[in-house]
């Protein structure tokens, strides 16, 4: 705008034509200029406000200020001064949005990829690596919340958007969607983390007793006619003289700070406090069918009685945080009872289920059948994820400084 000055006086005025009041601006040339508060582009208008304005003449030839807004030149100078005070350098780049993409990879690779970035985050911030996703999601929430606070200061907000400190309107939706993706990643990562920890506990117990197994195989899934209709991933298939056991590891409650309770009903439904009912038994039935389908269909095992190739399900809860209320006939045990559970039938009958050579042949068939490193879709951070997240945090922090010093910015 063409002219600059300071609000010198404000008068309440209740006339129908002048609803809201009027005031006078002391212009730089010391001229006192009348204006209606309704002509101001911001509120509340206060005595002492630095403003800029255009002028017009009324019917009597008197000068009026219309429109009136805060002095943008002065605000910009004050913003620059505050940036310098906090050693912030303006960037021509848009407010960064940390990148996350859906990638096809196997679970182990996905876990390691995210874990590497988390470790870097932990070192950079002297924080627990596992807090990365929730922390960055909080930074995004802070940015979006602060953006709404500036809605009451539209002129200032526009200045900060131009300086790429606040997000442009077109960036609001991508930031909101990113939060949803990060929440999903965080949920999956926690599940993978505790899942892997649980499997490591079970694996140690199997190794302790020198048992042979196939870990995390992905086997073809068959329909009732024997046709392959998909694939299913299994935690462990243990093959030994004690028979074939399909182990499903459920590390429920491992990440909780309080005791949890799991109830397995007579029909095999699993329920936990605060969680929806799960058909874990049905899930493992698919695993059993997949294993038996591969073994029954193998030409290399046709001379072995089918009864020997039947797989038995075992569910392992590898922590002490949960109370198990098992009303079903399924074997749901702690890790410490795993070996006793596997050998129980042989101890009672005193007769091995599989010979040493049969164990070797069954393992070979399973390893040939599994789809090694089967790939699934995982959301993973891109290579600039942390750098962009740190930039996002830095710009939020300087925007918060501006909001905390509104009096200085408008002064």
From TrEMBL:
Q: Where is the NERD domain?
A: 195-298
Q: Which domain of life is it from?
A: Bacteria
**Which SUPFAM superfamilies does the entry mention?**
Nucleic acid-binding proteins (SSF50249)
Q: Which InterPro entries match?
A: NA-bd_OB-fold, NERD
Q: Looking at the Swiss-Prot or TrEMBL record, what is one Pfam family this protein matches?
A: NERD
What protein name does the entry list?
NERD domain-containing protein
Q: What organism is recorded for this protein?
A: Periweissella cryptocerci
């Amino acid at each position: 705008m063409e002219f600059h000055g300071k609000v010198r006086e404000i008068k309440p005025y209740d006339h129908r034509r002048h609803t809201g009041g009027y005031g006078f601006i002391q212009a730089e040339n010391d001229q006192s200029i009348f204006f209606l508060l309704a002509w101001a582009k911001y509120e509340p208008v206060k005595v002492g406000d630095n403003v800029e304005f255009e002028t017009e003449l009324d019917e009597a030839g008197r000068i009026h200020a219309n429109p009136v807004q805060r002095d943008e030149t002065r605000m910009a100078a004050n913003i620059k001064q505050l940036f310098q005070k906090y050693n912030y350098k303006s960037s021509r780049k848009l407010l960064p949005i940390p990148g996350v993409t859906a990638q096809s990879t196997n679970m182990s690779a996905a876990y390691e990829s995210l874990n590497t970035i988390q470790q870097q985050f932990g070192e950079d911030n002297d924080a627990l690596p596992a807090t990365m996703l929730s922390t960055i999601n909080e930074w995004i929430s802070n940015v979006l919340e602060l953006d709404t606070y500036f809605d009451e200061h539209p002129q200032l907000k526009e200045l900060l958007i131009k300086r790429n400190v606040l997000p442009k309107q077109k960036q609001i939706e991508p930031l909101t969607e990113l939060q949803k993706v990060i929440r999903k990643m965080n949920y999956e990562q926690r599940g993978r983390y505790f899942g892997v920890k649980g499997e490591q506990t079970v694996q140690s117990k199997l190794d302790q007793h020198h048992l042979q197994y196939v870990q995390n195989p992905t086997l073809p899934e068959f329909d009732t006619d024997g046709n392959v209709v998909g694939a299913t991933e299994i935690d462990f298939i243990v093959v030994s003289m004690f028979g074939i056991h399909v182990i499903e590891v459920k590390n429920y409650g491992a990440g909780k700070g309080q005791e949890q309770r799991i109830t397995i009903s007579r029909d095999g439904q699993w329920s936990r406090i605060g969680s929806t009912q799960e058909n874990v038994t049905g899930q493992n039935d698919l695993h059993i069918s997949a294993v038996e389908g591969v073994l029954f269909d193998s030409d290399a095992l046709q001379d072995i009685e089918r009864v020997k190739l039947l797989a038995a399900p075992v569910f392992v809860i590898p922590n002490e945080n949960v109370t198990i209320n098992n009303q079903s006939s399924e074997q749901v045990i702690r890790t410490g009872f795993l070996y006793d559970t596997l050998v129980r039938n042989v101890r009672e009958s005193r007769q091995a289920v599989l010979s040493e050579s049969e164990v070797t042949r069954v393992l070979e068939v399973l390893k040939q059948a599994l789809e090694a490193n089967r790939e699934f879709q995982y959301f993973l951070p891109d290579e600039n994820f942390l750098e962009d997240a740190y930039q996002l945090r830095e710009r939020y922090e300087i925007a918060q400084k501006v909001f905390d010093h509104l009096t200085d910015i408008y002064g």
